[in-house]
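Tokens in:
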């Protein structure tokens, strides 16, 4: 990959995603023909309904490129090279004497028919076919033996050099200053594999948090993904957003989780879509996109206001579920101690996101020349922001908290208490007091800041939002600090975040969903809605998910920021 002028990631990491991207052509998410790296180099677990293991065994192996659709390994005789030619076909070249196998996950061998190895699953109507000939191999998927065989035969004839060049063309769009940073390229690779083509009810290209196990399209995840993709391909980032908007119900509701077959969840997620649309516009300058999105964004935020002002305070309340391991999937912070009481709370984060999106709607309206409309939305934002500052701030402790219906504040000191930094009218003395909490080693100045709840929280732990560090909240806090002129603090948080993601990437070859804030255990040993497992198997127990899309995307953004890559400002107050 050196001749392509990028630093190819070369750390083999169990669980890293491997599959064809919708950036390069059609995909078929329903097939589940996507793999993850196995525990041993050049071992791949394909996540079809009946899982199969494809592996290559050759001596003196050294991984030189481990991207999401290209793998190159140096051997004593010649390189082993693997690349996807299409969503259904993986091709490879290897030296003589290489052992190649395709077996069921339980160890049973597939059947052999001449030069073909066939693994047929009649219960799920799929076939995997492995063809080997003349130092070449092709692994293909089909819904019948004939289809899989035809694809494998074509794969043997495909030009490997042209295939690699086609897969690598995406990386040529990366900012030149960062092409030589393997972490940056790794993040771009994770972003690539989690992009999919139009399918079923999704009329445009779309993104997923991870091809395995989440698989579906999610609301606020898609926006975070778009922020990073703006740096590479603004049109693709816009597709991510309009695919979400296309799933809007007639009453304005947008679900938090959506599938190509039309299934939708019954809850929503943090309202950051207008922000995503505005940020994308900074890259594309496509006013037709603003015109298309504006009425949909208005309908969505109006739905939130109409259905989530449950305490009649003017602030917004997350939906509360019965599952104690996921009290509020709607919030995106599923199992936070904030929700342990299982009661309706005026939520700091929900209200802040809504204010921010109303301001973004106002900016969109103004850009389209509708000043009266912009003024209306700015007034609505002003009103809710005033309530955030008056009702959710505790003067004694100097922090923002969720609020009970009776007016008392929740005792849980969570990372969401910093999110009002995203608002324009925070009194300066409050910013100073929030930063005191940020740098208090007994609260949020952990080894890997910023923990999702204070270290002083009695229930603190590594289990997701009960204490672990997440990259998206670090991203939001850094933006808020920069907005209020605290550029040194913002830069420090970004650099620290990138350093920790880099450290664990270099050790384990993946970007993780979340990290131990105390840095006492590696991410795969963090709890996730229950104790971690000793054996990695995401079908039996999800631990901190690997090659998680928003970790890669927002690390990409923060690495660009600390390197000096230009980005659009979070906000200017130009009303």
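Residues out:
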């Amino acid at each position: 990959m050196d001749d392509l002028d990028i630093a190819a990631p070369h750390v083999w990491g169990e669980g890293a995603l491997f599959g064809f991207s919708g950036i390069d052509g059609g995909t078929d998410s329903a097939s589940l023909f996507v793999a993850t790296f196995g525990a041993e180099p050049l071992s791949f677990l394909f996540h079809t309904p009946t899982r199969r293991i494809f592996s290559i065994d050759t001596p003196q192996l050294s991984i030189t490129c481990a991207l999401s659709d290209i793998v190159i390994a140096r051997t004593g005789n010649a390189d082993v090279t693997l690349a996807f030619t299409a969503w259904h076909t993986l091709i490879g070249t290897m030296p003589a004497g290489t052992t190649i196998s395709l077996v069921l996950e339980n160890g049973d061998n597939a059947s052999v028919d001449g030069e073909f190895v066939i693994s047929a699953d009649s219960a799920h109507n799929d076939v995997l076919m492995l063809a080997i000939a003349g130092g070449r191999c092709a692994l293909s998927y089909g819904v019948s033996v004939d289809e899989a065989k035809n694809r494998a035969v074509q794969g043997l004839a495909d030009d490997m050099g042209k295939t690699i060049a086609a897969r690598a063309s995406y990386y040529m769009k990366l900012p030149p200053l960062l092409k030589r940073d393997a972490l940056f390229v790794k993040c771009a690779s994770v972003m690539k594999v989690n992009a999919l083509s139009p399918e079923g009810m999704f009329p445009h290209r779309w993104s997923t948090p991870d091809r395995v196990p989440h698989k579906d399209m999610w609301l606020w995840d898609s926006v975070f993904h778009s922020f990073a993709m703006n740096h590479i391909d603004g049109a693709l980032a816009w597709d991510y957003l309009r695919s979400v908007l296309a799933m809007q119900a007639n009453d304005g509701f947008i679900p938090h989780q959506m599938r190509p077959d039309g299934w939708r969840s019954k809850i929503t997620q943090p309202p950051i879509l207008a922000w995503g649309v505005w940020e994308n516009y900074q890259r594309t300058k496509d006013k037709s996109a603003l015109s298309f999105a504006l009425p949909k964004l208005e309908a969505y935020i109006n739905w939130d206001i109409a259905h989530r002002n449950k305490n009649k305070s003017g602030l917004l309340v997350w939906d509360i579920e019965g599952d104690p391991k996921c009290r509020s999937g709607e919030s995106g912070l599923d199992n936070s101690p904030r929700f342990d009481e299982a009661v309706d709370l005026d939520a700091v984060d929900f209200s802040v996101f809504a204010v921010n999106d109303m301001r973004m709607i106002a900016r969109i309206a103004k850009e389209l020349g509708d000043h009266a409309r912009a003024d209306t939305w700015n007034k609505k934002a002003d009103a809710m922001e005033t309530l955030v500052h008056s009702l959710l701030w505790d003067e004694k402790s100097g922090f923002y908290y969720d609020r009970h219906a009776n007016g008392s504040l929740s005792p849980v000191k969570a990372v969401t208490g910093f999110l009002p930094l995203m608002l324009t009218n925070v009194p300066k003395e409050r910013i100073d007091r929030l930063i005191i909490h940020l740098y208090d080693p007994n609260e949020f100045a952990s080894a890997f800041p910023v923990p999702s709840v204070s270290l002083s929280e009695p229930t603190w732990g590594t289990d997701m939002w009960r204490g672990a560090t997440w990259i998206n909240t670090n991203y939001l806090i850094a933006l808020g600090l920069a907005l209020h002129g605290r550029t040194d603090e913002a830069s420090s948080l970004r650099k620290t975040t990138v350093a920790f993601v880099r450290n664990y990437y270099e050790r384990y070859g993946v970007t993780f969903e979340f990290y131990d804030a105390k840095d006492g255990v590696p991410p795969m040993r963090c709890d996730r809605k229950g104790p971690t497992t000793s054996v990695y198997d995401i079908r039996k127990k999800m631990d901190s998910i690997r090659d998680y899309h928003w970790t890669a995307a927002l690390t990409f953004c923060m690495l660009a920021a600390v390197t000096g890559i230009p980005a659009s400002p979070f906000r200017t107050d130009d009303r």
